[in-house]
Amino acid sequence: MSRRLVVLLISVAVFAVCFDYRNVRADPAGSVVASSSGDSTFALARSRYIAAGDAFSCVILDDSAVKCFGLGADGQLGSASSSNIGDGVGVSVSAAAAIALGSGRTARAIATGASHACVLLDNYGVKCWGYGVDGALGYGDTTTRGTTSASMGDSLAPVDLGTGRTARSITAGAQHTCALLDDDTVKCWGRGASGQLGRGDTQTRGDEPGEMGNSAAAVALGAGRSARAIAAGANHTCALLDNGSIKCWGDNSYGQLGQGSLAAIGDGVGVSVSAAATVALGSGRSAMAIAAGDAHTCALLDDGGVKCWGAGGNGRLGSGAADDIGDESNEMGDALVSISLGTGRTAIAITAGIAHTCALLDNYVVKCWGSGADGRLGYGNQNNVGDNTGQMGDALATVPLGTGRTARAIVAGAAHTCAILDDNSLKCWGNGGSGRRGSSSTLRAGHTSLTTGDNLPAVDLGSGRTVKTLTEPGRP
Fold this sequence. Notes:
By secondary structure, this protein is mainly beta. The chain contains one helix and 23 strands. The N terminus and C terminus are likely disordered.
């Protein structure tokens, strides 16, 4: 197990929490349709209603509109301005207008990168806005969008996914974006320097004309293989395949691809995505969901366990150490034990930030581990958790959400965390810079007992507004 010093590649966190496929099936919209009525079946589906990027957050409201708050410098808030929202200087989240998605258009899912955002629309199209220099928006240019009204609404075209193609789900990395299409293929665009687009080279795509649509090849996942879910880290991408296995490609500087080496995949130098081995999850184990952080990856397994690999600094892998995992042989598979979540406890959702990880457990409580800086773990202190023995399992407290409150979805950003609660309210803690917590201030929260639980107010989303819920099994 490598003990080299972990140095963060870039100061962003991007992640994706995908859907739980135990007793569920995907509908053409990318929703999940449950075969039972238990609310735990839908926990992962709700995760598509919130997203957290580098210094901003986005949420889908109960009327299927979208609001984003935090840093707005690159148009990532889609507010027709470069001003921040929710920082106590600019407009408040409550007063902010919903993002103009186009006439009659509403949102099904939201994904955020370092400084761009993409939405899956009600008609299964995709629109993206924010920082456009690396082609992550997919419009065949390097134009930044979202800072003016002329770049949003009906003026913002859907991303060209190919003739007749629509999207089931979306995910965003630091400067790249991927879509799981209706034919169960995956297409990626944006920065490709590490092979994160899975195209067998390091070219950037989506920044010039003629690179999208039918010209954009799907990622070759292997003979007979298709995708069921996708997750993008800073500079790597993972797919949950139809047989419950996982393939990851792109940057592998910390073992985040889970191959037992540091060799990149999909960059034209290392092995191709098609030829790459799937991640060894352990004897008889398969994956139900995946999450990708800056330089680490986590899988929610079929038995409700969680395994994480890649950069281990600050304890983000929950292994009781700060070592990287997956960068050397004999560290994956049965050698990688599931994270101890507590006696009898399993997970129903996972999320990965830049240096921390959180899980929503089967009893609807949240546990987080990794870097505690700025209170992002929500425990009323700034201590790291998971980098020493005896810190996980029953010793790991649940995040205080307020009297009687439990969680239905969780998402980790660069240095903050947000949860959808059982009353469809939203609470965010950790770094508050630029207003990313939506609290009309830039103060952090979660670092003292005075900023957790009942002392942490929910984000005011606007008069009568709440976070979107599931009105029938698996459907928005």
